[in-house]
Amino acid sequence: MRYTISGKHIDVGDALSTHVETELGETITKYSQRPTDAAVTFSRDAHQFLCDAIVHLSTGLTVQARGAATEVYAAFEACREKMDKQLRRYKRRLKDHHKDRSEPVEFGQAGMYVLAADEEEWESHDSGLQPIIIAEMEARVPTLSVGDAVMQMELAGTPLLVFRNEKHGGVNVVHRREDGNVGWIDPRGNG
């Protein structure tokens, strides 16, 4: 597995890098035999250290976690424990994921835009109430089953996931609702 271990305004020494590679490697291989790469970033927020880890699996799924503590090693351990909990929850499905799928998850490209938040700014331009685009980016949209989409959303720690439904090819959304349940939006309708 390839590791990218970096710090934002923090010097990440050899001892911390070795510790991260050893511990994260053990956690990932316990649940998934085929990780491809991991990116671990350390940063500081006031008196706390933050550790963000993203692990890409060869199936196309991504696992993401964040930890915070007053010490850098403790921040990594909090992050690793969260990732361990996520992976443990989906252990069986992650191990069987490659059996159900002969090819890795396919990704399509989509445009992603950041819009100005201030509606008064929209009105000041001659475009009426049209939003002002302040940034354009590319987003990757995976082709997944609904169950795999929910698993990917939870593994990545995101509040929602846009995906292409592998049954019918339409664009769908799964999201975490305020009541704790997962919502699924399928614009295709009931039929």
UniProtKB/TrEMBL annotation:
Q: Which Pfam families match?
A: Ribosom_S30AE_C (PF16321), Ribosomal_S30AE (PF02482)
**Could you name the domain of life of the organism this protein comes from?**
Bacteria
Keywords assigned: Cytoplasm, Translation regulation
UniProt subcellular location? Cytoplasm
The Sigma 54 modulation/S30EA ribosomal protein C-terminal domain covers 130-183
Q: Which InterPro entries match?
A: HPF/YfiA_ribosome-assoc (IPR050574), HPF_long/plastid (IPR034694), RHF-like (IPR036567), RHF/RaiA (IPR003489), Ribosom_S30AE_C (IPR032528), Ribosom_S30AE_C_sf (IPR038416)
Q: Name one GO cellular component term.
A: cytosolic small ribosomal subunit
UniProt keyword Kinase, yes or no:
no
What are the recorded Gene Ontology BP terms?
negative regulation of translational elongation
UniProt KW Cytoplasm keyword: yes
Family named by the database record = Belongs to the HPF/YfiA ribosome-associated protein family. Long HPF subfamily.
Under the subunit heading, UniProt states: Interacts with 100S ribosomes.
Q: What is this protein called?
A: Ribosome hibernation promoting factor
User: Which organism does this sequence originate in?
Assistant: Paracoccus siganidrum
